[in-house]
Q: What sequence folds into this?
């Protein structure tokens, strides 16, 4: 049995893979702890509670020090560790001159899109703490991409840098361009502004790709953004688990 693990900036996401079948994604927040500490604690909990696990396939955005501590943990617990690296492999040729500079979470997102929509052009949007958008030709040539602030980062920035500091959050429910109160106006502005940016960038990418692309929207804010996203797309919040499954099965 293999544990598929995605250690992000604010929470750890994981699923089980056994006999070719993966479980639904489970989310473990860091509960206010610093990201590295929280991710290590949750990972240790997973290993201790899944004694039948033999291997961990891990993607993370938490730096080299975290990776070294995970390697030590897996050595102590006698678990095989596969740390995902960005590289020209699995039929994908990355646009970055140095593939190691390309975020591993973005790489796994491309693999997820490839596993869900084989041999098709793709635009992969991963909406988390940051939002990444990447274009992939049907032949596996990665064209590159962009990075935007995520929805919560936008909200936090607006609250912290305006005179609305007495408002600790914004209302992201039922976004409307005609909001009738400040909380909803802030939330609607951030959400619809981000959706508008994603739609515009996606359309620009589509114009430059060689063939029509499938749009994959994944990540923690996928469902919230999907409700207002007007382009035809596939919302698969846990798609990175499919990317990790792809790596686990192909080695």
A:
């Amino acid at each position: 049995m293999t544990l598929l693990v995605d250690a992000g900036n604010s929470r750890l996401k994981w699923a089980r893979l056994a006999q070719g079948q993966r479980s639904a994604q489970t989310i473990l927040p860091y509960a206010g702890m610093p990201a590295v500490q929280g991710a290590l604690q949750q990972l240790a909990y997973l290993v201790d509670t899944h004694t039948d696990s033999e291997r961990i396939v891990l993607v993370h955005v938490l730096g080299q020090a975290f990776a070294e501590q995970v390697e030590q943990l897996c050595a102590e617990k006698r678990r095989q560790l596969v740390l995902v690296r960005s590289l020209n492999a699995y039929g994908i040729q990355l646009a970055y001159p140095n593939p190691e500079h390309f975020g591993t979470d973005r790489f796994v997102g491309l693999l997820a899109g490839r596993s869900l929509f084989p041999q098709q052009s793709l635009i992969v949007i991963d909406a988390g703490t940051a939002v990444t958008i990447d274009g992939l030709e049907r032949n596996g040539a990665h064209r590159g991409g962009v990075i935007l602030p995520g929805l919560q980062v936008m909200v936090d920035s607006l609250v912290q840098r305006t005179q609305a500091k007495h408002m600790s959050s914004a209302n992201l429910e039922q976004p409307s361009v005609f909001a009738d109160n400040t909380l909803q106006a802030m939330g609607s502005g951030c959400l619809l502004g981000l959706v508008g940016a994603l739609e515009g960038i996606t359309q620009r990418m589509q114009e430059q790709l060689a063939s029509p692309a499938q749009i994959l929207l994944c990540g923690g804010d996928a469902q919230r953004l999907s409700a207002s996203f007007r382009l035809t797309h596939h919302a698969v919040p846990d798609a990175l688990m499919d990317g990790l499954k792809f790596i686990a099965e192909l080695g």
